[in-house]
User: Which sequence fits this backbone?
């Protein structure tokens, strides 16, 4: 997959980030352009496994109806700048986890969407304080990324409110986790 249009500053930022990050193209089927080491640690997939493929490869056969609808609306509606949803994903070895997915649009100064930015966090069995720490790190990542992207004429869309830790998100994750722990689930 051709990543030469990805600004060097953004590639460097991905390499140094402590949270799982992915960057996708806005061409047909939104193929992944970059994933970082924390993404590999979380999913078991490295860049050679997923670059050039849509991130839905992590979903395998999971229905994820509500999450897919939110993601589809985000991708299709220019007024939606960011989305956060829980989604069942699978590690490379087949083990399921509940991914708290955050996605936002990276736009050129002209308003054209250049890339899709995503961050992933396993909330399957994590303690609330880890989710809180992740939210803080994601907020820092977005804040630090803004000036880095500005150097390349790119603006990150999406409000920090989108990543606010809500009771509803945690409750939804617990329900999803109960489904994952049910007998007969892989």
Assistant:
């Amino acid at each position: 997959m051709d990543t030469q249009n990805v600004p060097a500053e953004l590639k460097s930022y991905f390499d140094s980030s402590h949270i799982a990050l992915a960057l996708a193209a806005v061409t047909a089927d939104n193929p992944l352009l970059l994933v970082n080491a924390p993404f590999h640690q979380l999913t078991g997939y490295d860049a050679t496994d997923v670059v050039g493929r849509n991130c839905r490869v992590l979903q395998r056969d999971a229905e994820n109806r509500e999450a897919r609808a939110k993601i589809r609306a985000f991708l299709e509606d220019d007024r939606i700048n960011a989305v956060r949803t829980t989604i069942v994903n699978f590690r490379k070895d087949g083990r399921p986890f509940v991914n708290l997915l955050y996605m936002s649009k990276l736009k050129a100064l002209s308003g054209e969407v250049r890339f899709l930015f995503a961050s992933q966090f396993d909330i399957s069995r994590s303690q609330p304080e880890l989710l809180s720490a992740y939210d803080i790190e994601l907020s820092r990542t977005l804040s630090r990324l803004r000036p880095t992207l500005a150097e390349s004429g790119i603006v990150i869309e999406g409000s920090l409110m989108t990543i606010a830790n809500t009771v509803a998100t945690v409750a939804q994750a617990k329900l999803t986790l109960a489904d994952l722990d049910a007998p007969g689930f892989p």
About this structure: The chain has a mean pLDDT of 83.
